[in-house]
Amino acid sequence: MTETTPFPQGRIPMVRGRALVLRGDDIDTDRIIPARFLKCVSFEALGAQAFADDRQELAGRHPFDQSVHAGASILVVNDNFGCGSSREHAPQALMRWGIRALVGVSFAEIFYGNCLALGIPCATAASQQISLLQDAVAADPSENWLLDLNGLTFSGGSVSEPIQVASGALDMLRSGQWDATGQLVARDDELTRTMDNLPYLRGF
Fold first, then answer.
1. Tell me: the pLDDT tens digits for 171-203?
2. I need a surface site. Which of 18, 19, 103, 130 has the fewest CB within 10 A?
3. 156-167, pLDDT tens digit by residue?
């Protein structure tokens, strides 16, 4: 399945939706999107190929193939998620599958930055908290969860746990500063006036 709703844009004070669990430490970017898909000329079709090899090996038992998780938008993972090659295709594939936020013990630094550039929060919590959250998510896949970037909590049903997001990333998400394209579009008139006054854009 792939996502058909709008991609992240502007201010992101929260992410609300159903969640799914992907257990295991050190899940690297080659597992998220295998290297053979890096030959694509656009990111458009990557959502359908997220975890392609893992899904083939598990023959329908991978969380991304289970019908109960169709439309889920928050992925709960473990430690060092997104390690390995620094390929921006990995968060692109997750976003195009439908993921709008991740919660885990820790994330590889470059993967974290690539997610931020797409407006995908990567929130962290202690290992014990993540285990509790994963069990709660798995117990009821139909539950709606809220990743609150103002209150810094991840909650659903009777479960609520504090989460952390790096202060710089948190400010960018809540203010919308992560969205460089959106900022340019919002200031189109000002940019056009500036371009009209640049002689090298007007043929001197």
1. 999 999 997 766 666 666 776 677 777 777 666
2. 18
3. 999 999 999 999
Q: Within 13 Å of residue 48, how many CA atoms lie on the same side as its CB?
A: 4
Q: How far apart, in whole angstroms, are the C-alpha atoms of residue 94 and residue 38?
A: 14
Q: Look up the CATH superfamily of 14-177.
A: Aconitase, domain 4 (3.20.19.10)
Report the Cα 201 to chain-centroid distance in Å: 38
Please tell me the least confidently modeled range out of 1-10, 41-50, 117-126, 152-161: 1-10
Structural domain boundaries in the chain: 14-177
Beta bridge partners of 18: 144
Q: Catalogue the long-range contacts made by 40-45 (C-beta closer than 8 Å, 24 or more residues apart).
A: 40/89, 43/89, 43/92, 43/93, 43/96, 44/96, 45/96
Q: What is the pTM of this model?
A: 0.88
Structural tokens at position 3:
């996502």
